[in-house]
Amino acid sequence: MDIFISYARKDLSFAKQIAEAIQRKGWSVWWDARIKTAQQWDEVIEKHLQSARLVIVLWFKTSVTRRWVKNEARYAHGKGILEPVLIDDVEIPLEFTDLQSVYLAHWTGDEADPNFTQLVEAISEVLNPEQTNAARQENPSKCAEMEQQALAAGGSVGVEPKALPNLAVFTDVHTSWCPQMVILPPGEFIMGSPDSDKDAYPDEKPQHRVVIGYRFAIGQYLVMFAEYDLFAKATGRDYPGDATWGRARRPVINVTWEDAKAYAEWLSQKTGNEYRLPSEAEWEYACRAGTITRYAFGDELADDLANFGGQVGKTTKVGSYITNPWGLYDMHGNVCEWVQDIWHDNYDCAPDDGNPWVDDSQNEVMVIRGGSWSDYRRTVRSAVRGREPATHRSNFVGFRMARTL
Question: 3-152 has which fold?
């Protein structure tokens, strides 16, 4: 038997749908709806679980709480044959968060869906490795096309980013601890606020032209608890508090500038690539995404476009709102973001090439950008600057990664 599907009984209809779709691809599938009358339930499950070449666990709101689902996933993980599929936006049990999950939350049964194609590819790599390798050698252009579809759907393919076009999404390592990054093009923009903006603060001036003559990548999402918790576990650091709001896909909070820097160093060591905090100029360039308005969405910001103003009263899961024009989430609101730069009271003598503004002073007050869930509409504008001591922790400050290409 090829595949064992683990799920909670409440989600039988979806399990049946995905099992039948996989069977149409030529693999044999077993799920416990096939247990016959008078058969011993646990013995039958154990038999088929042990004979399976691959175990697919369906993470629903129900299944993440079921002991037997976690036991089945634990068994498969130990044998290296677990393929997780995320159906609901839930907190995956911590011991499985180091595995990349295929995301099928909005799957309706379409077998041409890029996310389902990603699952089929993952299955094939385990069950038919020779066939998969042969296909890559015989038709590399088709494989590249499928990899691009997976990237567009939020997948991760370990593709060398220098070979990818501007605004492509990539991850360096096929695992849940490696963030999704968006490649930004070289360009120039006007940083800060004009005198005509009645909401501008003095520290947003003078406006000045910044030329970024290089490509770089920035996190599509804020760094999440699921990612940061793995770093904390691996390095023996304390887990930051979540204010009882939840972890998993919520942005990490209660982290200092030093914590963010240490996370970047750890990620760099794990991947062999240079991760870091963005400079303040890079951050505003990414936030504006080619726009010259007060927000990436125009000169006004509707309530349903971002988490700000206390309307939710806490952080929201990353990706809950629409992206800016360059495919980046939560550049306005949710949490403020640490950047590399030391605080300066205005832009007099600021760098104009995208580099961070640092000096030899003893100033340990760092810049934060983007505004948070508790900030007013005025203070989540693209140009707004904030400041906090490097040792500051709060429930409104997090960060996202940048990567040098």
Answer: Rossmann fold (3.40.50)
